[in-house]
Batch of 2 targets.
Target 1
Amino acid sequence: MEASQIKDQVIGTAHEAAVARYWNEKQSDAINLLLGQGDGLIHHHYGVGEFDRSILRLPAEIREKSLLAELHRMENRQTEIILNSLGGVGRDGGVLDAGSGRGGTAFMLHDRFGCLVDGITISTYQVEFSQRLAHERGCADKVKFHFQNMLRTSFPDDRFDRVITNETTMYVDLFDLYRELARVIKPGGHYVFVTCCITATANSASPDIQEIDRHYGCNMHPRSGYFKALVSNDFIPYKVVDLTAQAIPYWELRTQSAHRTGIEDVFLRAYQTRAANFLLVGAEYLPS
C-alpha cells in the first residue's frame, strides 16, 4: 500500500487531521523534552502524587532543575500506577499502548514486564521519534511503534493481553474506541486507562473545560460516558480510583516552573472546583 493510501486509511476526518497536525508540529516543546532528558522517557501526560515542597524554597537560579526532576518523577508515578493496575504481563504477553506519543509509557511497560509492546499514534513525527528511541534503548525488537488510528487498527482479532490508554481517550469517540479495543483484546484481557473527564456537576460549557479542549484540540468526555461505553462493549470495571486530589500537586508545582505553558491555572481550577476529575479505571473484557 502506498504512503498516501496508508495516510488516508489512518486519518479519515477533519478532526483526526487536526489532531495529527497538532502532534506533528509539537516538536520543540521544551517542557516535555526537558522532563525526559535524564532517563529518555518522554511523556505527553501529566503526573500524580505529592512533591517535595522544599524545592520551592531553593534559590531561583538552581530551583528549575530540581523542579523539573520532581515533575518527571510524578509523570513516571502516573504510569507506574497504571502498570500496577494491569494485573501483570508475561514476557511473551502483548500490550497495546493506544496513543503512544513519544514512547514513554511503552518503554516503561517493557522495562517493567519485559513484554511485547505495540504503540500506535496518528502522528508520523511521534512514530519516527519513538522508533529511534527504541533502537537507542536496545528494545526495538520488542517495542514497536506504528502509524495507526486507535479507532480502526490493522491488528488481528484477539491480539493483545492488555491495553493501555494514558490520557488519550479525549481525542476519540468512546463507543468507537471500545468497540475496536474489544476486537483486538483477548477475552479476559485487562484494559487500564487514566483520563481527565467532566464531572456530573459540570458540563462541556464550563469555561475551564472549554479552555482545556481548545488548548489541546480535544473533547473531554463526561465521567459517566466512560462507564456507559465500557459496559456496552463488555468491559467490566474491576478498579476505579479518583486521582483528582493526587493530580492537584503536579499542577501546583508546574505553575512555579519557568517552562510553564499557561494551562496550569486552568487545570488547577477545574480540579479544585470539581468541574473535572482525574480518573483511573481498570476493566476486564468479558464478552458474553
Note: The mean pLDDT is 94.
Target 2
Amino acid sequence: MRALASAPTPATRGVVHRRARTRAHRARPRASASDPSSSARPPSARYEKTWSNPTGNVLTDVVLGVVWAAERPFTWNAIDVGGKMSVVRLRDGALWVHSPIDLDDATRAAIDALGSVKHVVSPNYEHVKWAAQWKEAYPDATLYGCPGMRAKKPGIPWDAEVGEDGAPEAWGGEFDVALFDCEVNPFTSTPFFNEVVFCHAASGVAFVTDVFWNYPGGDDVPPGTRLWKFGMDRVYLPFYRAAMVRDREKFARAREKVLSWDFDAALPCHGSFIPRGAKDALRRHLAL
C-alpha cells in the first residue's frame, strides 16, 4: 500500500476553529471537536479534499497548539482506507511524531514551522515505510520502534525500542504507554502488529494505530471505503478476537491499562478523530 496526495504549494499548518478545554493542574488544552462551519482558512498548501482529508490541510489542529493530525489518503486495492500521522508539541517545545508519513515538501515545511522534531515513533510492525526517511531528514531526532523492530526491520536505523519499559525519560513524563504483544498471525504463529498504544496525559488524547480504527459510514464516504468499514468491523474484528489474540489474559491486562488512563479523545491512524467519548469506544472495540 502507498499513500497518495496531490502536489501542494508551500506549506503552513491548517487551522480550524474548535472548542478548547484546559486541565487545571497542567493548564494545557484538551481535545475538542472541529467546527466545519469555520471560515478560518489561512493561505496555505492544499491537498485534494478527500473523505480522509476533508479540509485538504497539510496539518490540522485537533488540540490547539499542542496536537496536530496529518491526514492523507491511503490506498489498498484502489480503496482509500485513510491514514493519519500525529504530531505533539511537548512542554519543552520538542515535537513528538507518531506513525510517520511521506515527508514531502509541504509536510516538512509545516512540521518545521511548528518546532524541532526530537522523537519519531513507528508504533507497530506495519507503520514503518517512512521511518528511515524521517531519520535522514532529522538525524538528531530519536527514531523509536515497537519491541522487536530492530530484529524485524534491521535495514532501518532505529535508535531505540519503546513499549516494554514504559515511556523514555526524554519524553518528560508526558506519555503513558501500553504494549499489545499478545496477538499472532494465525497462519504463521509469528507476532503480528506488536503495537504500542500511547496517551498524552496533558491533552487527554490517546494515539492508536491498528488495534483500533474509527471508519465513518456516512453517505459522504466512498462506496469502497464503506465496504472496507463493513469488512473491518464485521469480518476482521471478530476474526482478530477469536483467532489472532492468543494470550487473552495479556491482552486484557493491556486493555485495562489503556482504560485506566485519563483521556477522552483518540486520534487513530485509520478513521476519524474522536474528540470525546473515546474511552468508551476503545472499551467496546477491545472487548474479547
Note: The chain is about 20% helix and 25% strand.
